[in-house]
Amino acid sequence: MGSDYQLHIFFFPxxxxxxxxxxxxxxxxxxxxxxxxxxxxxxxxxxxxSDTLDRDRQKGLDISLQVIQFPSAQVxxxxxxxxxxxxxxxxxxxxxxxxxxxLQQPFEQLLKxxxxxxxxxxxxxxxxxxxxxxxxxxxxxxxxxxxxxxSLFENIKRYAPYENIASDSDVFxxxxxxxxIEMTKAQLPDHIVARNAISDMMEVINETELKSFGIVVNxxxxxxxxxxxxxxxxxxxxxxxxxxxxLYNINIVDKATRGQKSSIDEHCCLQWLDDKKxxxxxxxxxxxxxxxxxxxxxxxxxxxxxxxxxxxxxIKTPRNNEKEQFLPTGFEQRMKGTGLLxxxxxxxxxxxxxxxxxxxxxxxxxxxxxEGVSAGVTFITWPVFADQFxxxxxxxxxxxxxxxxxxxxxxxxxxxxxxxxxREMIEKVVTQLMSHGEEADEMRNRAKELGEIAKRTxxxxxxxxxxxxxxxxxxxxxxxIHTSQRSKEKAINK
Length: 494
Ligand SMILES: O=c1ccn([C@@H]2O[C@H](COP(=O)(O)OP(=O)(O)O[C@H]3O[C@H](CO)[C@@H](O)[C@H](O)[C@H]3O)[C@@H](O)[C@H]2O)c(=O)[nH]1
What we know:
Layout: E1 8-12, H1 17-32, E2 36-41, H2 43-58, E3 63-67, H3 90-101, H4 104-114, E4 118-122, H5 128-134, E5 138-142, H6 147-159, E6 171-173, E7 182-184, H7 190-193, H8 197-211, E8 214-217, H9 225-234, E9 239-241, H10 252-256, H11 266-274, E10 281-285, H12 294-307, E11 311-315, H13 331-335, E12 339-343, H14 348-352, E13 357-362, H15 366-375, E14 378-381, H16 388-399, E15 402-404, H17 423-434, H18 438-457, H19 463-493
The protein binds uridine-5'-diphosphate-glucose.
Uridine-5'-diphosphate-glucose binds at residues 17-19, 21, 144-145, 258-259, 285, 287-289, 314, 345-346, 348-349, 365-368, 371, 386-388.
């Protein structure tokens, strides 16, 4: 197979912004390096990024979409429920996963028709490993998470350190990791500490992952070298780190249109930031699907106001409070000039990259974590569910570029009903992070340095750039071996 052979890769993102946004960036990145990229998704999800792909095609990239129907009605979901963000109860999640298993047949039809050389699919589409093997092509797994949270989960399962403690809030050290990582049982997902349907699914994911060609990880080596090695050597995975993929978005329009269309004009947002001093603004956002209760939002509003720190706050209105009765009376009026409220969807990467942003209060989704690291900001960590407590430990205990808001309990659903952090604590951590004390300045310096390294890593010669070159080369070799095997089989069968 010559080095001029154009690889054709199928990208199959899971239908949730936190999983699809990085895979779309990845498909575009591969296309920019000469592959033919085809993204497989459903009609409503295609809507979120079809304009971006149009712009890429105008630039000459070989990138396209194939749309398959999402069987919402077949599994009892309302019409138009095609992404995790449109799910309103935890019970609907079970139906949602059932619907995704029904995508196998249309997906295989596309495989037969287009005969790509490789599939890069989300971990939740574990059945693509078997399909890939049936069609003699490589499957690479994308988790959305990085080496640190994956290694941490693995060792918690391996050594079950939570079994020998007296209470859920007792601190234990997770054994066998390169650093001394402290956690509590209350911070662990249900499916780790007890057996349930998710644990069963994670087991299948794990098994199919070991049989796959390897794993692509949205991270960079210099951010977590010990965990990159741990994951490969101790956990026996073949993995390529090719991120931060968000850095592939260079111009304003690309940065502002990741995921949904932003609810604010990006130029107004930039103008607002232009009036602020460097590193003076706190950006507050809890990802694509977390939705806090009215009481919690009130605490955030009061805490932010009391801190007197300029902020941008992205608010997802609680489903039972569309009239927004959670903001204190006159809040927006008083905050004019100091606080910018964005309802629903913000151009996050554009905001983080602005020099006025100094801190990020985040739920610690992996994308937000890495986007914050790439922008060189410091963090207030406020994990809620999924891998977010792991990412909090990474920020506060390994990188040491953030402080915790103090939420101590893992939630099983994206819409926690309780108040997790009170206004006094919010005021305290915001003031502490944005101040100019010795500790805050040291964190700031470390964060800025990491941001510089992140940018270099995706440039030609950088570690992620080189890793991607290596991965493309390995996929070509795989294609070549498979093609010659096929020719031999055909010759024997003649
Ligand atoms: O107003 C918004 C809100 C989010 N985003 C983007 O949406 C993505 C959000 O991803 P992430 O920060 O990872 O949060 P979640 O959407 O909650 O991601 C899910 O998927 C991640 C990857 O597996 C996990 O780490 C998280 O725990 C899980 O909740 C990021 O790229 C953000 O830039 C915006 O652009 N504007």
